[in-house]
Structure formats: C-alpha cells, structure tokens
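Box 3.1 A note on notation
Throughout this textbook, protein chains are presented in two layers. The first layer is the amino acid sequence; the second is a token string describing backbone geometry. Keep the layers aligned when reading.
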Amino acid sequence: MKNRLPLLTVKAVILVLLLILPLSSCVSAKYTKEYYDLFDTYTSVVSYGMPVSAAIYAELKYYHDLFDVYSENFDPDAPEVRELLRVCEKYTADSDGVFSAALGDYTAMWKQFIAAERPLPTESEVSAVKLSGTQPKYDFGAVAKGYTLDRMVPVLDELGFSGTISIGGSVRAYGSPKIKSTYVIGIADPGGGIRDTMEIAPGQAVATSGNYERYRDYEGTRYHHIIDPRTGYPAQSGVVGVTILCDSAADADFLSTAEFIEPSGRLLEMYNAEAYWIYEE
C-alpha cells in the first residue's frame, strides 16, 4: 500500500460503514449482525459462518469502560491505559504535534458549544486552556476505537471469528480468507446515499474523520469536534473528510485525524497507508 488513493472533491466519496457484501470470488457464507451502543457511537459486528458470540460484546464493553475518561471509574494507571498513552505520545511525536490526546479541556468546551449549551468560546478562553502540565486531561476519542479493534485480535482468533467490527468511523476485518477473502464496505457521498464501494481484506482497517457529523454552523463558520492542538480551535484545513486504509485500526484512527488537520500526506509512507482527502469546493 505505497500509493495514495485519489484526491477527491467534496462531492466525492467518504467512508460510511453501512454495507458489507459477499463477493462472487469468495466462498458464500451466511452472516449474522449485532448492533451495540458503545464508545458513544454506533457499533456493529458482522460474523460469517457462526453466530456473534457474547464474548465479543463483553470484550468491546470492557474497552468501552476502560477508555472512558469521563467515567468516575476511569483508572489512568490501568496497564492498557498506560500503553494507549504511550502509543498516543508516539503519534504526537511522529506528527510534530498535529495530533494530541491531551485535549480534554478543549474537547469538553467545544462539545458544549456544538450542543448549543454555551456561547462561542472567546479567544481568551481558548488561550487559557493548557495542553501540557503535571496532570493533562486526556480524551481518547480519536484513537480508542481503532486501538480497541486491534486489541480484539487475540480474542477473535481464539473464537474463530471471521467478519468485521465497526465502531463509528473505524472498521477492521478479521479471520480466515478461506471464509471471506475480501469485504466490501459501502462508501457514501456526504450529501447522502451510497456513492461507491471499497474492498478490505482480513487484517486491514479503515477509518474516517470528517466535519459533517458532530458540528454546529454558526455565523458562517462550521465548528466541529476535530480540534487542532496547535490552536485549540476546530481544524480549518479546507478538508471535509479523509479516509485512511492501512493494517492497523489504531494507526488509521490517528492518521485520519492528523491528515484532516494537516493534509500533507507526509505520514502515509511512514505508516504504509493510503488516503482519500475530500476538500471543500
């Protein structure tokens, strides 16, 4: 995956995890679906050749609770949390600060504004928020979904699971290529409806970041949930959305955020990834 996917305009496609279809070249297998309300988003499991095991939900729920920084039971010293922090620090270093998980104060402030629960933050309020300190406030929303999908691999292998799991804009394919060699993911136009499709193989992952789901249009500007750590404001890069394809769901999550904020493409070769950028017209 050394070549980048085509550069697209705003009317082009953006990933929507709506469609998973069998290919004629693959072994035909029945599948079952389950849907969950986890990670503050829509989560689905599609299993081929066997029912969806209750163990899959239990594992997803475990990580949902583990990485919920807003829960009173959140434990920053849990081994998995410490490992995720280490991964996030690497992402921050690799992106020269374009990505950061230490955005808890910023995300809380902008989330309230997007929900019309507070006035537009002033420059002084934004400037007062600190990204670093002895106890920075974290928000793992940009990477926890993909990181969880990667962490699920041992459990799913033990269960003999073949299929896909999607958490919001992050999806990963698992299992034996003898059961399913490729999965077709529906791709939609931001204006609605499925525009195209893409294929992923077991072991591959895709993730999308965009400004069209959690946002508020206010006085001619769109304010959304993807924060530029360098400014404290929702990123204004001219990008409407970006979709990443690579072999790690966590990396795909990170890259979709970083390449939305700064669409330079410089990180793609480092992570052996491909990307669709969708720009404003």
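Residues 8-279 form a domain with the T-fold fold (CATH 3.10.520.10). Confidence is low (pLDDT under 50) at residues 1-27.
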